[in-house]
Amino acid sequence: MSWWRPSDVGYAVRNKLADIGHATQLFLRLLRLAGPTFKRFSLVRDQVHFLGNHSLAIIVVSGLFVGFVLGLQGYYILVDYGSAEALGQMVALSLVRELGPVVAALLFAGRAGTSLTAEIGLMKAGEQLSAMEMMAVDPIRRILAPRFWGGVIAMPLLAAVFSAVGVMGGWFVGVVMIGVDPGAFWSQMQGGVDVWQDVGNGVVKSIVFGFTVTFVALLQGYEAQATPEGVSSATTRTVVMASLAVLGLDFVLTAMMFTI
Questions:
Q1: What phi and psi, each to the nearest 5 degrees, are found at residue 32?
Q2: Rounded CA gap, 176 and 72, in Å?
Q3: Cβ 34 vs Cβ 149: under 8 Å
Q4: pLDDT for 164-195, tens place per residue?
Q5: Measured between alpha carbons, how far is 180 from 81 in angstroms, rounded to an integer?
């Protein structure tokens, strides 16, 4: 007895292609709505506050402890090679190139992404989006677009805060607790970190991650089934899909940045 039929495979492939097409249409429409959305900047500002300020606590605490760990582990690795003074450079490069954008994006997906998905999903379950359409108000223009661009703006700012706090955490462990020379710590960092190549790469990553995480969260909320179980499943998919997308894109972007 066959467990699958060719018609089942074709049906599944067709549905997946349709989902990809709908997602692409929504993404392109959100990009086209950038002008009208920023004309009502107060809507975007409110979303930057909601997504950014409300995520600031977990970003700061996580960045501080990541900096602590980098400072501690980095010192015990570098001291074996007589390069303890390069601790500042190692901490800064690890944060601005890699850990800052990636970890901040994962935290952003878990905190802000799930909030967006649940909010949009509950609005759909409560038929608020349908009511807006009945009143000739486009829910994509009024609800989704400000949240999309608010997330795109908030994500790089949170990544910058994460990296800055992480550097301070590494300085505290290396200089204050262990006793690394503070002049060497900062001078090695300044000499080894390039603004355009290192910090710029981190900024590009954080912007890409902002687009990705925010869009995945909005898409899952907008396409969620209008039931409590549907909203719950959409919230779970947001965390899983956004996290995997961030890690996959991180590899692709890193490979491109170091080969171009």
A1: -65, -25
A2: 12
A3: yes
A4: 999 999 999 999 999 888 888 898 888 888 88
A5: 15
* End-to-end CA, the chain: 53
Query: Which two three-digit tokens encode residue 179?
Result: 């006793």
158-172 residue pLDDT tens: 999 999 999 999 999
Alpha carbon distance 10, 206 (integer Å)? 37
Q: What pLDDT, on the 0 to 100 scale, is given for residue 251?
A: 93
Structure tokens at 124: 């759909």
Residue 229 is given by DSSP the state H
Question: Tokens in use for 211?
Answer: 């687009």
Contacts of 213 (CB under 8 A, 6+ apart): 105, 108, 109, 112, 113, 151, 155, 242, 245, 246
Mean pLDDT computed over 99-124: 92
The one-letter code for the residue type at 189 is M
Nearest CA to 97 among 192, 195, 196, 201?
Answer: 201
Mean pLDDT of 53-75: 93
Positive or negative: CA dihedral 31, 33, 35, 39:
negative
CA–CA gap between residue 214 and residue 144 (Å, rounded): 10
- Which runs of consecutive H residues, i.e. helices, occur in the chain? 6-32, 34-39, 41-52, 56-78, 87-93, 100-108, 114-125, 128-134, 139, 145-171, 182-192, 200-222, 228-259
CA distance 152 to 144: 12
CA-nearest of 65, 55, 143 to 107 is: 55
Give me the residue spans of the domains in the chain.
Answer: 33-259
List the structure tokens of 208: 């890409």
What tokens were used for 75? 């010192």
Res 2: pLDDT: 52
